[in-house]
Amino acid sequence: MKDDVKKYIFGAVAVFLVGVFIWVGIVFVNACGLSFSCKRGELAVARTPIPTMIPATLPAMEIASSASVDPDKCHVAGVELVGAWVEAGSSKTEVFEFTDANGISCEATFADVSPLFTQANLWYSGSLSCVSCHSVTLAVSPAQLDLSSYDGIIAGSRRADDAPKGTDILGGGKWTSSLLYQFLAETKADVPGHDEALSSGLMVYAGTPLPDAKATPKP
Length: 219
Ligand code: HEC
Known about the structure:
Layout: H1 2-32, E1 74-77, H2 78-87, E2 96-99, E3 105-108, H3 110-113, H4 115-118, H5 130-133, H6 150-155, H7 179-185, E4 203-206, E5 208-209
The structure holds heme C.
């Protein structure tokens, strides 16, 4: 009597499970045939929460990307990066070396330096980019200085219209005595664009560690 009841229960469960397998099988074979690589369950188009909207494909805007964390790059004060480039002879393409804030030997090129002049909101929150004032149009650029390109930086400031050379802002390779250092490191209360301390600790991620670089922790 007891065994019969057990048999009925097991029988019912077995029949139910077999039924489920057959049902899933029928649905699957019906949709996909006998293939396991069938993609019919995937969404045909990218969906947005709003059915009529086309999904955005533009990349999100980046703000001050060189200031955002990048673990593969060196971490260095903006002023020191520019300084190392100037001291190394301010080449357009050649690699120069510097030691970053963690004591790691690193290398970089002018391409790591130029964003410091072209990016807004970098030196301090809400700062204008240098080139928004010191633009390629000398007629309106303060101190007739064009920081928008390598040639402009090398040509220097206070240039008459197309004069190839003006005042050297790179101090002849002596960073701390250069005009550029002065205008980055010192606050000039009466000069617009320079009335906030630009160098007050801008740290950037730039350059790459030398292959055999090892951190020498600062004491
Ligand atoms: C709001 C506009 C403005 C911005 C932004 C600005 N500057 Fe200036 N800059 C000036 C003015 C104005 C002068 C002084 C011009 C004068 O004395 O005739 C000046 C002077 C300079 C000088 C000295 C040139 C000389 O021969 O006396 C340097 C170097 C300089 N700026 C670099 C920079 C750098 C680097 C940045 C970006 C970090 C920057 N400036 C951002 C307006 C600006």
